[in-house]
Amino acid sequence: MVDTSGTVSDQRGVAGRVAKWLVDKERPDEAVALLAAWAANGPNDKQGQELLAEALRIAPGATVAQQAFERMEGVAGAQAELDAAVIQFSTEELARLEAELRRPSFRRAQMGFNNNIKSHDQVFHVQTEDSGLDQPHIITHLFADGGRVIKSHKRSYAADVARPDVSDFVRQLMKAQHLEMVLLLREGRFDEVIAGRAIGGLDLLTEPPNVDNIRKLASQKKQRAETHSSAPRMPAAAVPEPGPAHAAVAAAPQVEPTYFSLQVLRSLTGGPERYDPKGPTAVIGAMGAISLPGERFCHPEEAKLSYRAERLWLEDLGGGNGVFLRIRTPVELELGDEFVVGDQLLRIERNPVPDDGPDAHPTYFYSSPKWPSSFRVLQVFEGGASGCCVIARGNTLQIGSAVGDLVFPDDPLVAEQHCLIEEHAGTVVLTDLGSRTGVFVRIRGEQELAHGDELLVGRTRLVVDLRQVA
Question: Is residue 188 within 8 Å of residue 153, measured between CB atoms?
């Protein structure tokens, strides 16, 4: 192979990027052959070793990668597969693949989503694919029994192909349609089909995907997220109109009405059983109307409650340990979000990037098989120290006191099967499995509250009361 465009180092850099793209396109065999060819093309230096290490990471037993290692180390022998890869992935072919990678259009279809999901004591597979601008539709299949199609959903986006943001639009449509299929499976909508008493078939859908069951909480400063609670909004307390112009009436002090109240459900330090702050705003913390005396995990100004336009808003003031809201429906999490299960503070994180490449000599090594994993959950101790850490098995992680991947047997507030975290179509969803004590997610921006919502501040639990109080 003759290098005709740039240095070998430049071409190896392109090869690494193209190989990653091929893996994302579910073409790992081509990625391994490409990496092996360009690892063997050029000096046996750190860059070449990294390409070979990536090929071995993708397919540890690949013959073409083993032959590349032999050639790089000067070991004689038959290397026919490597020779074929060198010819196949020439400089010209590498440039063509890079151009395809950089192509801004997705006329050949965007990358889809594939997830396994456990339900009804079975493992199902959900697959969502795009057909590209030439055939603008998205199709989602639900598989069971290793290949039987339970249900299929298909939507056309022909009316939207001229949108300037069509790529992002289609990506979000794919994500929503994928999640919709998962939610319908969870709700038991396909039970009759799974049992063989009904026919699934293909549904041609025209309405947008229904994913309203998944709630998005405020995760950034000043961000507002609507609740999906069915509880009615309560009217604001009436402010008394000024009376006649008599001196005695004019001199009477104006009493601020009460717009909302907080009932204390749990407190380890005593204090009042109920807070009825006057006026439309109140601060949670020792310097505010909702003081929570003795609560050492509460900042003097932890959060602010504001009643405006007949709605109650909770705003995190930053700098403290935060205020947590009990979830009523499944919620979408972002990496770095914190939540409380029982008395355990947990945080969802991205898995670290593997660093098991060759050393400087180079020396290659193998390890136990690694589980594919979408995220990990970290326990946070008092003072911010890290506790135990558990990675998801694939795209799922369950928490409980007796059953699950992360188990807290000594916490009396954790149910046997407490909550479930799943990643589907790039979205991480947290679901309470009907626990008695609930799951609380930290609010980082401004979040609307509904009547009956429960808050957790430190170890104090409060319930929102929006009934009109005189």
Answer: no
